[in-house]
Amino acid sequence: MSNILIIDDERAIRKTLGEILSYEGYKIEEASDGEEGLKKFRERTFDVVLCDIKMPKLDGLEFLDKAREANPDVPIIMISGHGTIETAVEAVKKGAFDYISKPPDLNRLLITLRNAMDKTSLVTETRVLKRKVSKVQEMIGDSPAIQRIKDTIEKVAPTDARVLITGENGVGKELVARWLHEKSNRSSGQLVEVNCAAIPGELIESELFGHEKGSFTSAIKQRIGKFEQASGGTLFLDEIGDMSLTAQAKVLRALQEGKITRVGGEKEISVDVRVIAATNKDLLKEVEEKNFRLDLYHRLSVILIHVPSLNERRDDIVLLVDKFLENICAEYGIAKKDIDKAALEALKQYNWTGNIRELRNVVERLVILSGKVIQREDVLNNIVQRS
Ligand SMILES: Nc1ncnc2c1ncn2[C@@H]1O[C@H](COP(=O)(O)OP(=O)(O)OP(=O)(O)O)[C@@H](O)[C@H]1O
Predict the structure, then answer these.
(1) Which CATH number characterizes residue 112's domain?
(2) How close is the Cα of 208 to the center of ligand 1, in Å?
(3) Ligand 1, residues at Cβ distance < 6 Å
(4) Could you report the per-residue pLDDT of 239-273, keeping only the tens digit for each?
């Protein structure tokens, strides 16, 4: 059911409108002045607002400004009394959806409301569609390092070459893997991700290759492993440096032969999988320390993509912050906040250990805690708060 907020200081008008619209099946909320209206508007999302122009405390135009700042997607219809038609026209120029005159004409009111509702559903639909079209998040940055990575993705993605992605935590290794899959001929298949560090050693084999019923105590049902799930698509082995040596031997065999055997099973099953692996470890050092098989390393690292840390490409911070501000404010349904030059400089100077993931979190905190323009002070307070 659609929610409508009616803001008018005349009780009689609220009552008439409220009765008509409840009868038409709308859910009604009332406010008797602009201030109360704004409070309710900020507390929850309405489908449409009907707002009087002349009101005590906060008048219709002031309400319009503040409400659009808080959520520009909600259509606001002005209610114009005697002598306020010109103001109503001005309000429409400033972003009000339309206006109706007092006393309200039933047909005109219902048609205007219907149009406003249609607009709301179009806005929502467009947002959903936009999200669907760009399944993979854009890779932001124009530093030489990022440009080189984008070039490599273009060249390597359409081949079946295995790729090893290296870099610190939160630099964007998974994003690189997603783009490699998206731009490959396998993009209609699945991208199946396995976080090798998060799975206990004794379960990793069953996770990767599946198991037959009864093959070990907790194997109550037959299970399909990630290799099989990813057949026709891409298998992304994240944190590969944390995989046990036993599992490494089995992965090597799967890569050499293109076949797997489920745990406790006999049958060999062919799989058509492209493997992309990622790690924050120095795998060659792990090889030296006998924690990682050299032959597997060579199998996985046909193409190497190193994603440098944020501290090594500080110029990208400007673009990233701008995009995060836009995305986060849109998620919160508020107008985009700005960032002062000195504040941006403070972000550029900071020693980022959590990389882009940490930067996004800081920007989200700044959006929540700062005013319309984020100041250097806000940044410093935030970073201090973190540690
Ligand atoms: N260039 C970029 N532009 C925009 N967002 C990015 C970029 N790189 C990374 N991100 C975002 O930063 C977050 C962390 O990235 P991602 O998960 O790819 O890092 P990771 O290196 O795989 O981290 P971990 O090693 O901890 O798994 C994600 O939300 C990702 O979408």
Answers:
(1) 3.40.50.2300
(2) 24
(3) 137, 139-141, 167, 169-175, 238, 280, 356-357, 360
(4) 999 998 888 998 999 999 999 999 888 888 899 99
Assess whether 302 and 344 both reside in one domain. no
> What CATH number does the domain containing 325 carry?
1.10.8.60
Is ipTM beyond 0.90? yes
Tell whether 213 is covered by a domain. Answer: yes
Please check whether residues 262 and 369 belong to one and the same domain. Answer: no
Whether 79 has a pLDDT exceeding 80, the answer reads yes
Estimate to the nearest angstrom the gap between the alpha carbon of 14 and the chain centroid.
40
Q: Is residue 139 part of a domain?
A: no
Ligand 1 atom with the shortest distance to the CA of 359: 12
Tokens describing residue 305? 């993509």
Q: Which domain holds residue 77?
A: 3-132
Angle 245-257/201-209 helices, nearest 10 degrees?
20
CA 274, 278, 283, 284 dihedral sign is: positive
Cβ neighbours around 23 below 10 Å, total: 8
Q: Does any domain span residue 20?
A: yes
One domain for residues 196 and 116:
no
